[in-house]
Every structure is written in C-alpha cells, then in structure tokens.
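Practice record 12: protein with 4'-deoxy-4'-aminopyridoxal-5'-phosphate.
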Amino acid sequence: MASNINDLSNDFPILDQQVNGERLAYLDNAATAQKPRQVVDSLVHFYEHDNANVHRGVHTLAERATTQYEEARKKVQHFINAADNREIIFTKGCTDGLNLVASTYGEQNIHDGDEIVISIMEHHSNLIPWQQLAIKKHAKLKYIELSPEGTLDMADAEQKITDKTKIVAVAHASNVLGTINPLKELARLAHQHGAIIVGDGAQSVPHMPVDVQDLDVDFYAFSGHKMMGPTGIGVLYGKADLLREMPPYQYGGEMISAVYRDRTEFADIPFKFEAGTQNIAGAIALGTAVDYLERIGMNQVAAKEQELVNYVLPRLEALPYVTVYGPQDPQAHTGVIAFNMDKLHPHDVATALDAEGVAVRAGHHCAQPLMAALGVDATTRASFYFYNTQEDADQLINAIKATKEFFNGGTI
Ligand code: PMP
C-alpha cells in the first residue's frame, strides 16, 4: 500500500506509458483524474466477492454490500466534515447533485420576482439548472462578475446579493481560471440576506481540505471521478433540515417507507433522494479513493499542487506569446491553468501538445459565458494533480515552445 506522495508510480500504471512516441504527461485532471490501483482493485473485489443489491436483502452478500456502501457514506461524511452521514446523498456526479437541488429545493422555494445569484465563472452544470429554473419561475438570474485579477469581484457580490436573493450558487474553485472563491464569505453574505448557498465542489474537493460545516454551505456537490473514484458516482451534501423539507427528486424503489394505492410515505434522508438501485460498487470505490487521499493528507495534496503551480505559472507567463487567464498569483490558484498562444486555435495547440505526449484540453470548458467575459471563444487548459511531477511541467513548457517553433518559426 504505497502512498508516498513523491513516489506514486506503482499506484498509477496508466501514467507509465508513451503516447505518440513520447512520455505521457497527463495534464487533463480537471476533466477527470486517473485511478490508483487501490480504487480499481476495490471495484474488482466488490464484483468478484460481494456483489449484491443493498438494503433489501438479509443474505450475507447483501449485508456485506450494504455495510460497505454505508461505510463509504461515512468516509465521505468525515472527508468533508459533514455533521451527519444522512447529509451525504450519493448521486451520479456533480451535475446530478446540482440538478437535484434546482429541481427540488428550487422548485419549492423560487417564486415570481425572486433572484438567484451565480457567478460568471460557473461551469454550465452550475448555471443551466438555475437559468432554467429562473425562466420557469419568472425569477431573475444575476451574475457576480470577475475582478481585473481574474478573481470573483466581491464588491459586485455585495451588490448583487440582496434581500430578494433566494439562492446563491458558486463554484468553490473554477474549472477554467483555477481561481479559489471565498465560499465562506459568500455563505455569510447569502445568509445575511436570508438566502441559501450552493457550493460546486467539483474542482475543490479533490484538491484541498474541505469542511462543509466551517464553510457553512447549505448544499455542496462534487464528482467522484475527479478525485480518483469511478465515473457515475458523486455526492450531494445538504444540511439535514433542508433536505428533510425538500420533495424527492425521483420516485421509485428504495426511497419509500410505505406505499398505498393513492399515496406514498417517503423514506428519511438520505434514502429519500436515492431512488432505484444505486451505483453501489462506484460508491464503495469512491470510499477507497477517499481512503487514498486521506492517507496522503489533503494538506499534502494541496501543497504538492501549489509547488507545481509555483513552478509552472511564472514559466508560462514568461513566454511572450502566451496569455494566461485567471489570477497571476500562484497562491490564489489551483492546479488548473488556462492559456492561449497568440493567434493559434486552442484545438491546434492541444493537438500539437498531444504529439509531444502532453494531454491537455481545449475548448470552452463548459463555461461559455465566462469565455464571452474573457473575450475569447476557447482556451487551452492544463490541469495538474498531486501525482504530476516537475518533469510533467517541464514537458508542458517544452512542448509549448516546440509548438511555437512548429507554427512558422515564431511568427504566430
Ligand atoms: N462543476 C465544475 C466546476 C466542473 O469542473 C465540472 C466538471 N468539469 C462539473 C461541475 C460537472 O461535473 P460532472 O460532469 O462530473 O457532473
């Protein structure tokens, strides 16, 4: 059971390969993280030894599956310091969790003339559910804008969040700019005005210690696959009293306590929100990913990523043909770095980098309103995780230099 942060090579066989004849530098972690052997083994072990449906059976396998599934819920609870394991709802992913809140809490609490405040740096999955809810309910959707430094403009937040605001929904960390947003401060502002706050933790939970009680967020959603768990599993944290007041999201098996011909009594939380057979193996393997991260320590994870950003950001910014978006200060940054190379289309850049073994993403990163605010159609994005190395960072910088050479000798 290796998990020395400086020697993780045995845990991630996928990283030890060549692509296009070059060493792989996987820098697309904001899209999805690689899975250590321990997580893959946990999936295989479940299916080879314990596979059964949860909660319904009395036989041994069903009990084993149920115990592991509920243990995974407790692991997640402790990982984000939720007060109660019933506040942890397993979802399909971050998108699913955010839609759940918009469709239940939102449906119940947003009325004509109410206001919902989000930020201009939201991923579409923390934007469209609120936009559509606002359209349906004749509510107003307001955006907190960016400061010139690429951070959230908190003076604008103070203006936009008013007594008309019912919901504030903001990313804890941006999937494009790498900005870490002051969620605790936003929660305080929201609560001052009687609104609730929803945090999008997709780009924060995998990368830094998160304490939902300290943040005082009402809801907080994230995805398993970005923190080395499998795809198709995610988490919605919600304060118990709010969750209990909300109507169910979906109806079916598992989420009931009694069904009659003409009515249904719903189960208590969290089961009220887990209709149908869940991604049992996925939840258990997510628990294994949590174990893995805890063994390393989230402070260590954050420190390692900070070290990589401290190294790579100034080197990128020093290239005169590269524009970096987001905060200049490495301390205000996660391992997500979006940039453009003069006149080159980001897709061409990503393709050229791939030829050098560097896996990055290009496009609008599901944040089109942010792209419009930045005045671009797309960017290239490199995103680091704690298992990346300085060698990966050097490979990125060298590949960018080689790309510039390739496209007509430096006149791009
Ligand atoms: N929010 C942010 C900030 C994200 O980066 C992502 C994934 N790119 C999501 C939400 C949605 O996550 P998923 O696609 O796993 O549901």
